[in-house]
Amino acid sequence: MRRYEPVPHYVSLMRWTSQGRMGLPAWRDRVEEGEREIEEAGGKLVGVWVTLGQYDVIEVFEAPDDETALEIITKLQRHGAEETETLRAFTRDEAEKIIRRL
């Protein structure tokens, strides 16, 4: 039986720039283009949420490693529609495994 290895998850907290706000009518197309770019780089879009508060959008994606995640974020930011802060998210099991080593 093959053992399941979790794929790293990344949480991108996004704020629309003035350029991004002007392009909101095409937001759905941008999300779909972003999903294609994520997949082409070897990742997978988990979900996109529009939020209230400090950030306008939260996007969660999977990538095989940090290098791929950086490639994805860099590609997504090239249009200048949003500023992002991306966090590497650890599952409960991943965190517990790390903590057990302390």
> How many β-strand stretches?
4
**What is the string of SSEs from the N terminus onward?**
EHHEEHEH
Largest sheet: 4 strands, antiparallel
The share of residues in helices is 25-40%
Could you say which structural class the secondary elements and strand pairing correspond to?
Answer: alpha+beta
Which stretches are poorly predicted, pLDDT < 50 over at least 5 residues? none
Radius of gyration: 15 Å
Gap between N and C termini, in Å? 30 Å
Overall body shape: elongated
- Describe the strand arrangement of the main beta sheet, using strand numbers: 2-3-1-4
The helix count comes to 4
- What does the average pLDDT come to? 92
Strand content: 25-35%
What does this structure look like?
The protein is of the alpha+beta class and 102 residues long. Helices cover 39% and strands 28% of the residues. It has a four-stranded antiparallel sheet. The longest helix has 14 residues. It is elongated and about 50 Å long. The model has no long low-confidence stretch (mean pLDDT 92).
Please render the helix and strand layout as text:
Elements: E1 9-16, H1 18-22, H2 27-40, E2 44-50, E3 57-62, H3 66-77, E4 82-89, H4 92-100
Antiparallel strand pairs: 1-3, 1-4, 2-3
Provide a short characterization of the protein structure.
The chain is of the alpha+beta class and 102 residues long. Helices cover 39% and strands 28% of the residues. The chain has helices at 18-22, 27-40, 66-77, 92-100; strands at residues 9-16, 44-50, 57-62, 82-89.
